[in-house]
Structures are given as C-alpha cells and as structure tokens.
Structure prediction request, 106 residues.
Amino acid sequence: MIGPKEYAEMLQNVNVDEYISKIDALIIKESRRPSHPWVDIILDEEIPLAARNVLAKKYKEAGWHYVYHRTSSENGERPGLTRMIFTTESTDPKFRGVNDVYLWRH
Prediction:
C-alpha cells in the first residue's frame, strides 16, 4: 500500500519544473488557434500519475478550475502519450473522452 512516505519517494525522481515548461509551451501553441473554451494538449511521453496529480494541483493554483489527465496506456491505446485538458468550466464528456477519470477540482 502506498502511504505518504512512499508517495513522497515516488515524487523525488520527478522533475515537475521540466514538465511545467513542456506543458506551458504546448498551452501557448494551442492558444494561437483557439476553437474551444478549454485547452487540450498531448505530450509525447507518459507522465506518471503521481506527477500528474502534482501538476494538476499546481495548474489549479494558477487559476484553472478543472484539469483532466490520462495517459494513452490507461486508455488502452499505444503507450507513450499523456493528454491533459485545462479549463475553467466543466467540459462535456464527449469532448474529453468518456474514460477520463482523473480530475482535479477544488
């Protein structure tokens, strides 16, 4: 069972700032062609769940109300991708995928 100590150890090997830089670059790129009231990005790597939870919390603190995240292997697809959706409004499940189960809303 994973407790707080094990969770902290999992995060020690994760460079959250590097992920933030990559995510911010993709958000900027996506914002140049706004077509929806949310930002939907795909990173070309699988970010571990523990790191995604930390990232979701940081982006929530930055002003996003909802942060959806899921890896391609969690979705039963080719492994190696992470999808993240940032929005200030809840999105319709048909736009984010019915199987998106990870959600931070505070």
